[in-house]
Amino acid sequence: MKKLALVVAMGLASLNANADVIAGLYNTGAGLLAGQQDTNYALSSTTTAVGSFGYVAENGSFPIGPWLENTASSSWLTPTQSQGESLDPSTDGVYTWSTTFDLTGFDASTATFSAQFAADNSAIAYLNGNQIGTANGFASWSAFSATSSSFVAGVNTLTFVLTNQAQGAGNPTGLRVEFLSSDVTAVATVPEPSEYALMIAGLGLMGLIARRKNTA
Predict the structure, then answer these.
(1) Which of 142, 150, 157, 159 has the fewest beta carbons under 10 Å from its own?
(2) 63 neighbors 71 (Cβ within 8 angstroms)
């Protein structure tokens, strides 16, 4: 009787959706050492020659201080290995950082996240082409978030378009992103016909046993 009840309960539970955090949302520099490349964030630029990925900056070296100090949760990424390198002397630099995450198996209409970012000099955050936030400085955080309307089923792309204002000297640039929370609901599992039959039979048998006990 107990085994049968367990089977029925498991079958009914498979119809329910389960909430979870969104996998694949990584803070910049998370778990990496200074100087290492963060392959979670692809990098490109239409104005400056850069590699495919940025580098994790180090505390205690220019421009950190003026920039927010790195923590165990996240670190700054810079487009070149020399974090204090002066870039874009005569024309504003444009740097695009992007990361992807997959919602296959989840209901995209239930997805949400909240986060914060900072940039030198400024950045705009986009989720699947929809603007979801702006950052206008490197000494404090700017909030950004996404709700169900910005997510899509399958692979989602989060992009940060950073602008580094032209300056003759002392002009490094970088991006920092930190996620605070996320949530998405798994797609409910539909039992096979044989599982439905077992559940129905089990419920019927449990009802019959209950009636016999009541009439005993």
Answers:
(1) 157
(2) no
